[in-house]
């Protein structure tokens, strides 16, 4: 059993929040020597933070937990309402964020807080090291294109 690692960050809502969340994820996984998670987790954290900015518009807390070979990513915001996966036939502009999370995650869910907000979380497994290395290099090379 591997030791439990936990890191958290608070973010103000705004256009820079997804990029700041990705950098936090990248730095944290680097410190934890857990780069096998970065490719999927960067996409997941971007989608969850973007949803919180768009739909809640409140300060948010990003939490990362590494335990027993899985990475749990959660984004807590103070907004009311619960997220839902929008079926492909109903999507217009956008609406793919949670569908992406569902596809990449081993499990996901929503925990409603006593404060009226909620935490959307997902659990990820690492990708094969060879595939991650190639994706990581591409992602790092296109980091400017990811900035929001």
Automatic annotation (TrEMBL):
SMART domains noted in UniProt: HATPase_c
The entry's keywords: Kinase, Serine/threonine-protein kinase, Transferase
InterPro entries tied to this protein: Anti-sigma-factor_SerPK, HATPase_C_sf, HATPase_dom
Residue ranges occupied by any Histidine kinase/HSP90-like ATPase domain in the UniProt entry: 39-128
Keyword Metal-binding: no
Pfam families membership: HATPase_c_2 (PF13581)
Keyword field contains Transport: no
Chain segments annotated as transmembrane: none
Protein name according to UniProt: Histidine kinase/HSP90-like ATPase domain-containing protein
Protein species of origin: Catenulispora subtropica
